[in-house]
Fold each of these.
Amino acid sequence: QTKIFEIDPENIQKDGLVFAAETLKNGGTVAFPTETVYGLGANALDQEAVKKIFEAKGRPSDNPLIVHIAKLEDLKYLVKEIPQNAKKLMARFWPGPLTIIFKRSLKVPDIITAGLDTVAIRMPSHPIAKTLIQMAGVPIAAPSANLSGKPSPTQGEHVIKDLKGKVDAIISGGSCNVGLESTVVDVTEDVPMILRPGGVTKEQLEEVLGQVKVDKAIEEGHEHLIPKSPGMKYTHYSPQADVVIISGNIDEVVEHIKKLKEEKENKGFRVGIMCTDETKENYKDAVILSMGSRKNLASIANNLFAVLRRFDEEGVDIIFAESIEQKFLGHAVMNRMVKAAGYNVIKIGG
Ligand code: TXA
Ligand code: MG
């Protein structure tokens, strides 16, 4: 039995959160909105509670969880030390869409870290997430609130579809602002390293830190390396349909997609086209969904997962997706798209 609560993030009724906070304290599971994506939370200090998260999602046990906190005092006993670089990042980006990897303390249960000697911590800025964590009074472990392998949920309905009947409570609180997961950055070595691109861009991190590395394993053409963030090795974000990304000069990309669409349609396939506001007029007679405007990468980040889920509802067999320019939020967008496509990218032109 899953209790479902509708809560307006602009006008939070605290009584609505009392049940959820009690549930968390008592070892239950609660899905709730954050500014990135919805999370599925449990008391991070309670191993049995955390186990329920893995079961509900069907998540592999070698994939560690992010611990969410609402106040800095909670950081101190979860980590071994707080490096200077972490302090700079926290001052600038917390609360917000940044997860920081620290050396763990022994207070953190092994199930959270999946056996690593580090722990991932994030302080979310979403008013519902903040209030709920505060009211629960304990740090909250929370992966994205989707079934493992599916696109992350950015709206209450996505969570209800994936997890109703599998968790104790779902707080439906509107659509997530950022729409992509947090950036994961490791500060345990001298030069910080991005392990997962996300809501905070590399450019923003460089402003604060100077030099920032990116885990080579998550860069294009290095799929054979083992990522430092265990979750990055899984194919992810996959809709039912096959996804193919077409990359290159945008005019050529449009022409190529039109050609591929004809070919597939002639074979009886139902085709989806994932495009942008600037290009959507070029297509017709298919399930055509725009991710947003190329001039506003935040709009594309915001819509991406919802659009992938909509293609499933439309029952398409194959999705042709335009690539997005890899700068600023475009890195995180393309990272998720390439995984949704299972690395199936057609490059055209030079
Ligand atoms: O925006 C987000 O980060 C959302 C919201 C709910 O906060 N959460 C989220 O959690 O995306 P999840 O579990 O779907 O992704 C967590 C990622 C995984 O790739 C995992 O492997 C990585 O963080 N991670 C967790 N702990 C780690 C650690 N100690 N070292 C390296 N990577 C870690
Ligand atoms: Mg996830």
Amino acid sequence: SALLAAAAITRSYGNTPALRGVDFALAEGEIVAVTGPSGCGKSTLLHCLAGILRADAGTITYRDQDIGLWSEAARSRLRRTEFGVLFQFGQLVPELTAVENVALPLLLAGSGRREAREAALGWLDRLGVADLAEQRPGAMSGGQQQRCAVARALVTEPRVLFADEPTGALDALTGEQVLGEIVRTARDQGTAVVLVTHEPRVSAYADREVALRDGVVDPTGLGLGVTA
Ligand code: ADP
Ligand code: ADP
């Protein structure tokens, strides 16, 4: 069965329907791109799948458990231990250096200082930004900051990475490079990825594409031409 699945989920903001009955499934280690025009519900779907937002109806199961029935505390623990989250920008703590930022999730999870620092340095190295370890975000380019954010999202070796337009604030070339690194490092350790993206060449990165339109999965499917 799927690692993570949504069945017939709906979600509105006041009178504005954002999701109107969406089914979704993610297999272990699978990389799925969620695409579609602005306002079609991509962010809402990602937030529901990640347990950040509650769906109004329908079920979301993670490893066969209905996480909609869980308390906020249990959902928050799930996000800290099994999930990684990556947004467009603004995720690094400006007062902390790169290595301190990347070590933070491990420290919060109870790792020792030395162990957390070693792991953080290893991840900065994997993302090609080891030389920036002692820099603060304000001294880095957008691409460098986002590479640090990728390291921070993956340092806990999550089972699922949720990435909401992670390259949306970068120029086209840097965006493509960073997206390639997200996919490469996630694949390396078998992390599944739900990737909301506007990158045109999504077929180069994702195993499968789910195209949304007006809060439902577009039945014609292949919005940008990914073949499963
Ligand atoms: P996308 O990520 O595809 O741009 P969203 O999930 O952000 O789509 O939004 C889906 C719909 O829900 C849009 O009509 C949007 O305006 C609306 N929406 C999203 N977030 C909110 C919110 N916090 N309050 C009110 N409406 C919202
Ligand atoms: P995205 O780039 O994911 O589409 P948006 O720029 O649409 O994000 O939305 C950014 C933030 O504003 C999100 O937290 C979203 O929930 C909220 N938002 C989006 N649409 C609306 C809306 N119509 N009314 C209020 N908040 C909204």
